[in-house]
Amino acid sequence: MSKFALLDCNNFYVSCERLFNPSLNNKPVLVLSNNDGCIVARSNEAKKLGIPMGAPYHHYRQVIEKNNIAVFSSNYQFYGDMSQRVMDSLSMIIPNIEIYSIDEAFIHLDNFNSNNLTDIAKHIRNKIFMWTGIPTSIGIAPTKTLSKIANRIAKKHRANGIFDIHDSSTKDKIISDIPVEDIWGISYRWGRKLRALGISSALELKNTDTKFIRNNFSIVLERIVYELRGLSCIDINLSTTKKSIGSSKSFGKLIIEIEKIEEAISNYAARACEKLRTQKSKTNGIYVFLKTNPFRKNEPQYQKSATLGFDLPTSDTGLIIRSAKNLIKRIYDNRYRYHKCGIILLDLVPENQIQSHLFIKYDEYRKDNLMKVLDNINKSMGRKTIFHASQGIKYEWETRRNKVSQHYTTKWEDLPKIY
DNA sequence: TCTGGGGTCCTAGGACCC
DNA sequence: TCTGGGGTCCTAGGACCC
User: Fold this and answer.
1) Which domain-ending residue is among A240, A274, A297?
2) Which of the two ends of chain A, N or C, has the fewest CB atoms closer than 10 A to its terminal CB?
3) Which residues are within 7 Å of strand B by their Cβ atom?
4) What is the pLDDT at residue A67?
């Protein structure tokens, strides 16, 4: 039988904010998404006040003010840095991990004795808390899907933050309490369809015929059924290189002028290219999109995208900005007011495995060196010390971020001071 | 006034090949 | 008069995740 654990940071963004601001402890705290749009993290105290996950911030303004809830814009530079510290700590203890999201990692435990898995989990939790200050929960199970469920129980019902579903002789009883749409991999649409078929709990899904599931849904859901039965179908993924890299953001206000949209897409393209070079890859093509605000029902709606393939894989910011602007020009229509645009770099390949093209002169080396210089300067002297002219300097489209905390761990001038 | 951003995987259908 | 079938590859779109 396989053995997995899922480590999950408790209320991660809130825990990050509390690290350098202990006055927030035991108080209700919220963290917002980009553009101060949605509520994406809640302290336990805020959960108790009935604030739901993912809700639009402006719908809850009154409750927030009435209860004096502390609110922060998201500070991804800071959270990303804290995440890396947590993951580094974890991989120092156990190297076989899959970093699944900014605050979660799957741990491969096959090489460990089943009898002391809880002790290992205790050790991991204590060390991570000691080294980073971030509280975590750990669920242990024979499959990834069950480890998600075990983690949920650890977080909600176990004082020590650990739950091993292997231990449990009452596994069926436990999963009979899990609503079908709370299972990892099943969401609103499939949940609704399953319920219509009379399947409403994880236990009922586990006991459903797999052929029936395969015919009515897909192999994805069939695998989930096997995983609930304890048969591992979703393996741990140890690779850290991404297959696509994107950058997109909503504008701070609706934008009509194509010049401003070109400026925005140039910035997103530059950012995506930075990430691309950081993982030492090149891209074979790009996807660019532009859309109006779907929540403005009284505005005319429009959305369009376009793709472009390159003759040779590239990570040249200049070329990618030019290409992205051309695609924007192609899909832009001056009759609409726009809300968001973005770029995704597709079909990534390792930069050291590029085959040169027969008919095209291969002068990427010069570009590579230029990009290295650009990255080094921006890394040592701050983001956007050097940038392309088309990225502009006015940023009328820029995202709202009115309540952002300091960059405690990533900017010298924001280092916490002790007097 | 104000509703995120960044990913993964799977499938169906068309183009193309012999 | 009768005009194929089987395979692969690519892409767009849709589902899901945090």
Assistant:
1) A240
2) C
3) A 33-35, 37-38, 40, 54, 56, 58, 101, 218-220, 237, 242-250, 253-254, 271, 275, 293, 295-296, 339-340, 342, 344, 399
4) 96
Which nt has its C1' nearest the CA of A193? C15
Last residue of a domain, one of A168, A191, A214: A168
Same domain, A266 and A134: no
Whether A273 is covered by a domain: the verdict is yes
**Closest among A92, A166, A82, A176 to A132, alpha carbons compared:** A82
In angstroms, the CA of A281 and the C1' of B15 are apart by 30
Q: Which two tokens stand for residue A175?
A: 């999963």
Per-residue buried b or exposed e for A336-352, using 16+ beta carbons within 10 Å of the residue's own CB = bebbbbbbbbbebeebe
| E strand intervals along A294-337 | 303-314
Residue-wise pLDDT for A227-259, tens only, equals: 999 999 999 999 999 999 999 999 999 999 999
Q: How confident is the model at residue A31 (pLDDT cuts 50, 70, 90)?
A: very high
Closest residue (CA to C1') to nucleotide B11 in the complex: A218
Residue A380 CB partners (closer than 8 Å, separation 6+): none
Three-class secondary structure of residue A393 per DSSP: coil
Residue type, A304: K
Q: Which nucleotide is nearest to A101 (CA to C1')?
A: C18
Residue A102, CA: closest nucleotide via C1'? C18
Q: Which residues pair with A70 in a beta bridge?
A: A29
Least confident segment among A14-18, A117-121, A228-232, A399-403: A399-403
- CA-CA distance, A194 to A168, in Å (whole number)? 27
Residue A383 belongs to what H/E stretch? none
**Of the candidates A73, A72, A45, A50, which has an alpha carbon nearest to the alpha carbon of residue A62?**
A50
* Range(s) of the domain holding residue A30: 1-84+99-168
Task: Answer whether residue A414 is part of any domain.
Answer: no
Pairing state between β A281-291 and A303-314: antiparallel
Model confidence pLDDT, tens digit, residues A280-297: 999 999 999 999 999 998
Residue count of chain A: 419
Which pLDDT does position A355 carry in this prediction?
63
Q: What is the DSSP string of A187-198?
A: -HHHHHHHHHTT
Yes or no: say if A292 and A286 are a contact pair by the CB < 8 Å rule: no
Would you say residue A419 lies in a domain? no
A404 assigned to some structural domain: no
